[in-house]
Amino acid sequence: MIMFKKVSAMILGIGLSLILYSCNNQNLIDRKPEIIEMKTITELATLECYYHNVAKVKEKDATRFLFWTKDKNFWIEYSGIVKIGIDPSMLDIEVNEESVNIHISKAKVLDYKVDQNSLTDASYIVDKDSAKITAEDETAAFALAQENMFLTASNDKALLTNAQERAKKLLEEYVSNVGKSVGKEYSIKWIEIPYPTVPDPGQ
């Protein structure tokens, strides 16, 4: 289950107001879109999503005695926050007389964290036929919960698209407002930046 945090929208509105206030109080003759302000906008546009989910942990033949074996079967119920948006460090612009080229990466998971306060003894649901669960198992389950949350968000194409379009819309509005303040109507060209390829350590 995913819910958007309303507080992010409130912070976004305040942040954009401050940026526009700054625009209106600078020398308008020399005013043009600034990369620092655009990076700030992408940060403010980040989506914060609240996750509540269950991760299943299973270890086959966890305990043995002679020919008798027993599996470990349990679930962990958890909540957490995932931040999705544009990586500001990869944003770049080229401002021409009547146009602006915006180099932008695709939206991705920027941060994710299981809320440890959401975990209690009741969060671990152990199957009645399971082998005994240890503290190490709970630690491994916590890591699995974080990984599941990351993978779920990373594979949510609708959510990623939403974050991408949200950032682009706000950047468009910013460029348009800056242009209007100096009597220009900028055209915008979007140039997608691929993320760097991580080399395979096994090669």
Describe what this molecule looks like in 3D.
With 203 residues, the protein is of the alpha+beta class. It has one domain (2-193). The protein is 36% helix and 33% strand. The protein contains four helices and eight strands. The chain has helices at 6-24, 35-44, 135-154, 157-181; strands at 2-4, 47-65, 68-85, 92-95, 99-105, 108-114, 124-126, 187-193. Strands 1, 2, 3, 6 and 7 form a five-stranded antiparallel beta sheet that branches. The longest helix has 25 residues, at 157-181. Mean pLDDT is 81; it is low at 2-11 and 198-203.
Q: Notable features of this structure?
A:
single chain; 203 residues; alpha+beta; three-stranded mixed sheet; 4 helices; 8 strands; 33% strand; disordered C terminus
Secondary structure category: alpha+beta
Strand content: 25-35%
Question: Shape from CA axes?
Answer: rod-shaped
How many E-type strands? 8
Average per-residue pLDDT, rounded, comes to: 81
State the helix count.
4
Determine the oligomeric state from the structure: single chain
Summarize the SSE layout with pairings:
Elements: E1 2-4, H1 6-24, H2 35-44, E2 47-65, E3 68-85, E4 92-95, E5 99-105, E6 108-114, E7 124-126, H3 135-154, H4 157-181, E8 187-193
Parallel strand pairs: 5-8
Antiparallel strand pairs: 1-2, 2-3, 3-6, 3-7, 4-5
Helix pairs in contact: 1-2
Brief digest:
The protein is α+β, with helices and mostly antiparallel strands and 203 residues long. Helix content is 36%, strand content 33%. It has one domain (2-193).
